[in-house]
Design a protein that fits this description.
By secondary structure, the chain is an alpha+beta fold. The protein contains six helices and 24 strands. The longest helix has 33 residues. The two termini are 39 Å apart.
């Protein structure tokens, strides 16, 4: 009979099965074994990659959940310039608008008063200028009093100041007549929120009624535990995973908030995206991986060294003696880039099966 194909994996599995003792077998005092210990011959051991665990202070990876959001300068809040009733709402959330586009129509008696005050101020300023011109001409001819010319000049100055105030107030109402005014967008962007409905009565300068966001001003806001703030603040780069758009974007740390949330004891930090896609929008859930210098003494293992077993336990195999391997339960976190950080269960110097652990324990499942 001729055997075809690569038979080494089958031979190796057979060797492992033969070398692993039965649960109830007794081998005598000459070969005592620890619970779960596996003994491999040199011919099997050569398929494993075994290395001593070392501590590191090199660059590490930490991952946090966050969201896309508009920068404070990229978000414009539009309030009502006058007290009154909303007659029409002209935009919807998600709509793109240009600078100066009408957002809603407000009906207000204050609008009518502002326009009337402007006309009165214009008339008063014109009359004051006429009086000043007449007094100046009379003073030049020597038939008028200087005090009267000075008084006319002061009244003309006051009328001009009053006209400027009326023009600023009426500018909020825009062109037109009557009690209606169109409230317009101060900038180009996307309508993020509309917080008013037709018929609502609103105060002047109250809560924002419409919010406009600049798409180019989006960034990522995530939260970091207080005990990791110093590490995140030293980050060299970041990577943002957006599952909704199936994207991984490069970014950089823009800053860390100066205060923590008193309830969650977490601190916001901000990431700028190097290239934001056109369909990026605010409010998307993201995962931020921050590449920062690791703490001295941290232990990192490749994911191929960690097995899942017995309902989710993380297991690695330690070579206690040449050819002898014992299982060890560990705790891990910060899974990224093909490695995991070990929180508990290992000490520097211990020899761990970095690759091939599944061949040692065929009942386990690979972690990643």
């Amino acid at each position: 009979m001729v055997l075809r194909g690569n038979i080494w994996p089958l031979v190796f599995l057979c060797l492992v099965a033969c070398e692993k003792p039965a649960p109830n077998s007794t081998s005598g005092s000459s070969d005592p074994r620890r619970p779960g210990e596996v003994k491999l011959a040199d011919i099997s051991r050569q398929f494993l990659e075994i290395e001593p665990v070392g501590s590191t202070s090199a660059e590490g990876v930490r991952s946090y959940f966050g969201r896309t959001a508009f920068r404070p300068k990229a978000l414009s809040a539009v309030t009502a310039p006058f007290s009154g009733r909303v007659a029409e709402v002209l935009v919807e959330p998600g709509q793109r608008v240009r600078a100066g586009a009408p957002l809603f129509v407000l009906e207000s008696a204050d609008v009518l008063q502002a326009r009337a005050s402007l006309e009165q101020a214009r008339l008063k300023a014109r009359l004051a200028q006429e009086v000043l011109a007449r007094q100046s001409e009379m003073a030049k001819r020597g038939v008028g009093l200087e005090v009267e010319r000075f008084e006319a000049e002061m009244k003309a100055h006051e009328a001009d100041s009053e006209l400027k105030r009326a023009e600023r107030s009426a500018a909020l109402a825009g062109p037109g007549e009557g009690t209606r005014v169109q409230v317009r967008s101060p900038t180009e962007g996307i309508v993020v929120a509309v917080k008013v409905t037709r018929g609502a009565t609103v105060p002047s300068g109250g809560e924002p009624l419409v919010e406009i966001g600049n798409p180019s001003g989006l960034w990522v806001v995530a939260d970091v535990p207080e005990n990791e703030i110093s590490l995140v603040s030293k980050a060299t780069k970041a990577e943002v995973e957006i599952s909704a758009l199936n994207l991984n974007l490069a970014g950089r740390l823009a800053g860390v908030a100066p205060r923590s949330d008193p309830e969650t004891r977490r601190t916001p930090f901000y990431v700028e995206l190097e290239r934001a896609p056109a369909d990026l929008r605010a409010g998307l859930l993201v995962r931020v991986s921050v590449f920062a210098p690791g703490r001295p003494g941290e232990i990192w293992l490749p994911v191929t060294a960690v097995l899942l077993k017995e309902g989710g336990k993380r297991i690695v195999y330690i070579e206690s003696e040449p050819g002898k391997f014992v299982p060890r339960e560990i705790e891990v976190t910060d899974q990224r880039g093909g490695k995991v950080r070990v929180l508990k269960g290992l000490q520097p110097g211990e020899r761990v099966v970095m690759r091939g652990a599944l061949l040692v324990d065929r009942e386990a499942e690979q972690l990643l």
